[in-house]
Specification:
By secondary structure, the chain is mainly alpha-helical. It has one domain. The protein is built from six helices and four strands, in the order βαααβαααββ. It has helices at residues 11-36, 49-74, 78-82, 97-112, 117-127, 137-142, and strands at residues 3-5, 85-89, 144-148, 152-154. It has a two-stranded antiparallel ribbon with strand order 1-4. It has a two-stranded antiparallel ribbon with strand order 2-3. The longest helix has 26 residues, at 11-36. The relative contact order is 0.18.
Amino acid sequence: MQSTQTLLASRWSRLVSSFIDGFILSMILFPLLYLLVSGNLEAAQHLNPIQKLIIAVAGWVVFLAINGYLLAKRGQTVGKMVMKIRIVDLEGNIPSLIKILLLRYFAVGLISQLPVIGSLFSLINLLIIFGPERRCLHDYIAGTRVVSTEEVYYD
């Protein structure tokens, strides 16, 4: 009788998936940023609060347009799909889209924007992945983990 085992995603696969998602998002948002600063990229360092809000909202809209369905149905972003990994809760089920968005992405993103504390939080968020459970702080906050979509069969 064969059994299957679900494996935790490797740290490298998580990193690469994050780069893929960031690359896709930046390729779409860069033209918007360029338009907001009228082609003067040095001005991008001095965006006013309204311009920053426009970029942030546009980022969320684009992120949801690209990844919302995949996250809701499969626990994956495009990067996670390419790397054959997915987000699951601690029981192995796909978490609700609200839980993923609010706890894994929005709350963590909001905290990371705080002066001084945000940078420290972001660093801790990432470094915790080197623990034995391979979970980032955002995984602990959301009660999730990232696993391989490829099952290992053994007798």
